[in-house]
Protein 1
Amino acid sequence: MLADFCVRLALGMIACLLLLSPAASARPPQGQRPLAHPNFFRTQCLTVLALAVGSLLWLWGSAEPALLGCLAGAAALAFLGSVTWSVERSPGAVSLIVLTVALLGVAVGLREGDWGRIVGAIGSAALLGAAVSAMLMGHSYLIAPAMSLVPLFRLLGALFVALALRAAIDGWALLQWTGDHSLANLKGGPLLWLPVRWLVGLLAPLVLGWMAWQTARIRSTQSATGILYVVVIFCFLGELTGQLLRPDGLAW
C-alpha cells in the first residue's frame, strides 16, 4: 500500500511541474523573471527521486522486472533533473520532466493492471501531487514574498480539478457497489472508513482549498501555506483510507 502511495505521489508531483511553464523557467526571456524559481523544480525532482527509490525498495523481490525497471529509470531521471535544475539555463530540463512522467505513468499502469484501477490511480496521483505541490509553492513565498502568485493559483486550480476528478471516480465505484449491495450491508472496516474517506479525504480539502484561495487573493501567502499543510494531511489520510476500501470495491 505504501509503495503504491509513493508512486502516485511521485507521479502527481512531477506532472504538476508541467503546469508551471518549465521551459520559460529554465530559459526566461531577457529581463523577465521566471514563473517559478529553478530551485522549486529542483526540490520537486529530489522529492520524486526519494519517493521512486522508496517504492523500488518496498517492491524489490515481489514486483515484476518491468515495474522495477520503470521505477529505477524514473529515479535516475529525477536525479538528472535535480542536477539539471541546479545549473544555468537547465539544459534538457523539460525533456527530463516529460520522460519521468512517462515512466511513472507506465509504472502505475503495470502496478494496477485493469483500466478502472488505472483511472483511480491517476486521479489519486493528481490529487496528491497538486496538494503537495501547492503547499511547497506556498512555502516558497516565505523566502521570496515578491514572487508572482500565478504559479500558486495554477496549482490551487489543479487541486480543485483533481478533487472533482477523484470524487467522480470514487463516486462511480460506490455507485457500482450499491448496484449489487445495500448500504445497510456495510459493517466493520468499510462502515468505519467510508465516511472518513469522503469527509476527511475529499470534502475537507475542498473547503480548506477554497480558504487557501481566498487568503492567497489578499496575498496572505503565509496563511495560505498553513492551510495547505492541513490540506496535505487530509489528502494523505483520504487516499490511504481509499486504498483500504479498494478490496471491498468501494473506492478505486
Note: Residues 115-143 form the longest helix (29 residues).
Protein 2
Amino acid sequence: MDLASKTKNVALGTSKTNYCDPRIGISFCKSLDIQLEKVYNKAMQDKFSWALDCESDYYFNYKTIGD
C-alpha cells in the first residue's frame, strides 16, 4: 500500500511507449507464453504492429551500446 501511494503519479506506460523497443517486450511475452494483452493494450499493439512479427528469442540477441 505504501509503495502504491508513493508511485501513484508515475506513468510507467510512458517509458514502455516512448523509450523501450517493443520487439523486446513482445519477444519476451512470446518466449514465456504470456498473453500480449497483459503487457500491451490494443492501442499499443496497433501502434507497434510492425514489431509483432519478431522472433521469440529477439530479446536474447538484442545488441546494446556496449556490445
Note: The radius of gyration is 14 Å.
Protein 3
Amino acid sequence: MTRDAAAIGAGLDPVRVARRIPEGERIHVVGAAGAGASAAALLGRAAGAFVDGCDPGVPSPYSAALDAAGITVHPAHDPRHVTTEPIPDRLAVTKALTAVDPDHPELRAARDRGIPVEAWQQVIADAAVGRRLIAVAGTHGKSTTAGWLVHLLVEAGRDPSAFVGALLPPSTTGGVAATARWGAGGSFVVEADEYAGNFDAYVPDLAVLTSAEWDHPDVFADAAAVGEAFVRWLARMPDHGAIVANVADPGVAGVVGQVSRAQGPAVIGVALADDDGLAAGAATVLGRITAADRDGTTLELRGLGSDPRPRVARLSTAGRHNAANALCVAAAADRLGVDPEAIVRGLGTFPGIGRRLERVGEAGGIVIYDDYGHHPTAIRETIAAIRQREPGRRVWAVYEPLTYHRTAALLEDFAVALGTADAAAIADIWAGRDPDRTVASATGLAEAVARERPDMTVEAPGSVDATAAWLADAVRSGDAVLVMGGGQSYRIATGLLRRLEETG
C-alpha cells in the first residue's frame, strides 16, 4: 500500500518559493540530530538565524557539529519549545516524523500558535538563495556524488556551500565533520531526495541525476512512478539550466528522454563505456575504466572542456558505480567552468564521506567496512567494490534492512544481492517511518538468502548489538566484514571492532 506525499507530510505547510533568511529569524528544528535536519540547523545559523532544536536521539553522529556551532539541542520533544519565549518564527521538521505522527504535540502546539511548520529542506533552500543551486539526485550515489563535487569545488578554490546527507570530512567542511558546509563562493550544492517530494523545495540551476530505479515502495507503486517524480521535478528547472545525466542507467535515460522532448534545460549525458564503445553515442562526457585494484580505479575521461584529448584520473574509490559517480562529478564541474586539470585533481584527491565504503578498522586479521547501502542494487555494487578493495578475503555481507515495506517488496532482489557475498548476517529491520511489522522480518530475509545460496552461512541474530556479538564468534582471520544499512547498523561495525580488539 502506497501513500502520497501529502499523507507523508501531513500538517506541513506547502512548499513555497525560497526566500532569503532574515537576519535574526528564530528557527526551531524538531529532530535536529538527524543527517538532514542537522544540516538545516547549521545552514540556518550560518545564514543569520537564531536556531535551536530538539531530538531524543542525541548524541548522534551528526550532533557534534551542532555542539561545535553552539546550537542548543534539547534531548526531548516538548510543546514548550514553541510556546515559551522567545517564540520561534518557524518550525522545521523531518517527514520521518510527520509520516508516523502528524499530530505530534510539538507540531500541534506550533500550528495552534500560527507558527509555520515546514520540512527542513525549506530551510536549506532558503539558505541557498542568491547562490547557484546545484542539486544532486538519484536512487543511488547521490551522497557520494554530492560530497565528491563539494570536495572538488573546495580544491578548485570555489568555496561552495553545501548540504550532503552524509558526514563530510573536516578537510571539506573546514571544521568538524558535518553534513553541511558554509562558504563564500557562488555555488550551493544540495543532495536532493525524491522521497515524498523531499526535493520539491529545490529549483536547481544545475541538476545531476545519477540513477533512477524503484525504491521507497511505501510511496512509489513501481519504477514508472519513480521516473514520473523525477520528470516533474526537473520540469520546474529554468530554461537556462542544465541536467547532468548518467544515461547509461536505463531509468535515467527514460527520464531525460521525457524531459528533452520539451523545451527546457540542456541535457549533458555521461556514461561509462565498455571497450566496444557502448553508450558512447548518447554521452557528452565518456569514461572508461582502464585499471581497478585494491588501491583504487583508473578512469579515462573524454569530453571535458574544449580539448578533445582524453584525461586520466586515478580514483581512490573502488567499484564501477563510483567510477560512474566520478563522471557525473566531472561533467558538473565542467559545466561550472572548472578547469579540466583541476577536475582531474579533485577526482583523485576525494577522501570519501561517512558511511560510504568507510573502513572502520581491522583487528585479529579481520577488516571491517561500514556503508549506507540499503537497496539491492547498492548492496550488489558495494560487495563488488569490497572484492576489489580486499581481494582474496571471505566477504561477509551484514545487513540491517531499512523499513519493512522495502524489505517485503524487494525480498527476492535482496536475497540475490546478498547472495553475492560469501556469508551473511541479517539484523532486525529498522522501522524508521514504517512501523508495520507484519509484512517482513529479518528471519524471512535470511531464509530467502539461504534459498538463493544453500551453501552459504546465513544467520539472523537479532538486534544490532546481538548481531555484533554473534559476528565476533563467527568471523575468522582473513575475513572482510561489510556492514550495510540506513538505521543503526553502524553500531554493528563499531561493536564488532570493539569486541575483536578486546579479545586480542
Note: The chain has a mean pLDDT of 95.
